[in-house]
Specification:
Layout: E1 6-10, E2 20-24, H1 32-43, E3 49-54, H2 57-69, E4 73-80, E5 83-89
Parallel strand pairs: 2-3
Antiparallel strand pairs: 1-2, 3-5, 4-5
Amino acid sequence: MQFLPEYHSTIKPESKIPLMYKLDARGRVCPLPLFYTKKKIDELKTGEELEVLTNDVTAKNTIPQWSREHGHEIVKVEESGDDFKVIIRKH
């Protein structure tokens, strides 16, 4: 059985709001959420955003840390129960 992340994009035409992609990595354990995050960030254009959903405790720290270390902006971080959401803007 193959487990792949779920990607979605939100198109915001004629708007100054950046294009946002969503990565649902819930149910996967590190290093997979970080791996999928890095892979998707590499595909984005500067200024585009990625919303990552995870419920892995380790990923709650490693994804924001990796993002900052690589010069990306953490736009928002939220926790809701066991789920964690981080929005990253590519720089």
